[in-house]
Specification:
The protein is mainly alpha-helical. It contains 6 helices and no strands. Helix 3 packs across helix 5. The longest helix has 20 residues. The radius of gyration is 17 Å and the shape is globular. 7% of the residues are buried.
Length: 111
Amino acid sequence: MKRRSLDPETPAESAEQSLCLALLSLKDESEMEAFLRDLCTPAELEVLVDRWRVVPFLLEGVAYREIHERTAVSITTIGRVARFLNQGNGGYLAAAARASRRRATAKRARA
């Protein structure tokens, strides 16, 4: 994580909260995509996508090597995501649960 030697005008915690509120303010997938593409470099966005891509596999108990073969995401990244799934702040689990419910709702609506 980037550390700054000078005290910024806006405390890091306040800036992080502001970013969270900005993300929550977006109304749909297209706005979120535009925001992420503006906020992140292509490499940063790729890292985020890779991390999110392995979450469903880890939740299903798929072996790291198989996840790597299926996604081309590094074993190191897979291990990092797994560690945060198990010992993190619950963000991956909350997002995965909501995404799963959203997919189920959409599937029922199409049926």
